[in-house]
Amino acid sequence: MSTQAEGTRFDQARLEAFLGQVIGDFGAAVSTVLAYMGDRLGLYKAMAGAGPLTSAELAERSGTAERYVREWLINQAAGGYVDYDQGTGRYTLPPEHAMALTDEDSPFFVAGGFQVLTAMMKAEPRIMEAFRTGGGMLWGEHHHSLFEGTERFFRPGYLAHLSSTWIPALEGVQEKLKAGARVADVGCGHGASTLIMAMEYPNSRFWGFDNHAASIERARHGAEQAGVADRVTFEVSGAGDFPAGPYDLIAFFDCLHDLGDPIAAMRRAGETLAPGGKVMVVEPMAGEHVHENFNPVGRVYSGASVLCCTPNAIASSTGACEALGTVASDGALRQVAAAGGLPHFRRATQTPFNRVFEASR
After folding, report:
1. Domain 2-102, what fold?
2. Which end of the chain is more exposed for a tag (fewer CB within 10 A), N or C?
3. What is the DSSP string of 173-213?
4. Rounded average pLDDT over 121-149
5. What gap in Å lies between CA 1 and CA 253, rounded to an integer?
6. Distances (CA, A) of 322 to 140, 192, 197, 246, 291
7. pTM of the prediction?
8. Hey, how many other C-beta atoms are within 10 angstroms of the C-beta on 320?
9. What percent of the chain shows pLDDT beyond 70?
10. Does domain 116-360 have CATH number 3.40.50.150?
């Protein structure tokens, strides 16, 4: 039905449908924060495998206050995260949901994403100002939860795919790693990707580089805990000037699009590659054309680009190229690689959330 309001004709049904969508988005936004709290307070872990629980029982198991748990459970049931039995007034966390919310080694684990999102939202005043000025915000200026959350969010995918499908998709790389190769992980963060490779390929030697000193400290601690510190080195370094190898494999895991000068990073990779060496670039899934990002994954990644990735690229830019952003197309990435002296560039494999590229001289 159409109606008249202030000289504009509009479709009442479409308006009502949109308002319903907005209410759903309101619920999703507030539930993101509550899911993050459920993760950090141990509420999900207290429910996992426990069967039906009342709010009082969950509060006792998790060491939290029942009065807060009461509405938290209502929110979780309204969102479909937990099941509710009207007859008993008890809530249950289904085992499938528990796997995604509590098992950090599961390839389906997503709780780190709530941590990332809530951390990025805290940057809203800075990003709002950046809209007005065109300025940026460095990665290290974000709330500290962003760094841990990023590791927790990406690590399950790396565990599931890195050695099983991604590295095998690169020409000749897996054989070198098994025999003994030199590997650089540029933009390594807390070192999750570096350590996963080191555990899988014990004959190889690994170096992780990142310009965020606190993350490098965390990575070094992780190497000690994993027992691989004798063949894994973490150093504070930029992507455009990391120490010379030569390296048989240079990896950029979900970070090339964040860089202020990705061309310089590709150029440095080319300079430090051993003969026959390869560069692996892992990037978020994105379409070649703008409209191909109009889906749930594209919605998340484009939002992250606004709140985190593009601001870092702008803040650290040398002016060599425009910020890539989280939804950079294959074509844009190919141009960056070619400008950096790596003309051979192909998409080697993919998942619903990532694209894996191989580049070489």
Report:
1. Arc Repressor Mutant, subunit A (1.10.10)
2. N
3. HHHHHHH--EEEEET-TTSHHHHHHHHH-TTSEEEEEES-H
4. 97
5. 50
6. 21, 29, 32, 29, 20
7. 0.93
8. 15
9. 98
10. yes
In terms of C-beta density within 10 A (0-12 exposed, 13-18 middle, 19 or more buried), how is residue 330 classed? middle
> Which of 284, 241, 279 has the alpha carbon at shortest distance from 260?
241
Give CB contacts under 8 A, 24+ apart, made by 165-170. Answer: 165/349, 166/280, 166/282, 166/348, 166/349, 166/356, 167/197, 167/280, 169/348, 169/349, 169/356, 169/358, 170/249, 170/278, 170/280, 170/348, 170/358
Does residue 6 have a pLDDT over 80?
Answer: no
Q: Which residue is associated with the tokens 């996992």?
A: 48
Residues forming a β-bridge with 206: 183, 232
pLDDT band at 2 (very low <50, low <70, confident <90, very high): very low
**CA–CA distance, 138 with 323 (Å, rounded to integer):** 13
**d(Cα 69, Cα 158) in Å, to the nearest integer?**
34
Under DSSP, is residue 7 helix (H, G, I), strand (E, B) or coil?
coil
CB 150 within 8 A of CB 215: no
Query: Could you tell me the pLDDT band of residue 251, with boundaries at 50, 70 and 90?
Result: very high
Q: 27 and 78 in contact (C-beta within 8 Å)?
A: yes
CA dihedral 297, 302, 305, 307 (to 10 degrees): -100
Task: Locate the domains of the chain by residue range.
Answer: 2-102, 116-360
In this structure, how many other beta carbons lie within 10 angstroms of the beta carbon of residue 186? 28
Q: Which of 194, 100, 217 is nearest to 147 (CA)?
A: 217
Q: In which residue are the tokens 């803040």 written?
A: 315
The average confidence (pLDDT) of the chain is 96
Neighbours of 231 (CB within 10 A): 14
User: With b meaning 16 or more CB within 10 Å and e meaning fewer, what string describes 143-169?
Assistant: eebbbbbbbbbbbbbbbbbbbeebbeb
What is the mean pLDDT of the segment spanning 289-302? 97
What pLDDT is stored for residue 7 in this prediction? 62
Measured CA to CA, the distance from residue 345 to residue 334 in angstroms comes to 6
What number is the average pLDDT over the span 40-63?
A: 98
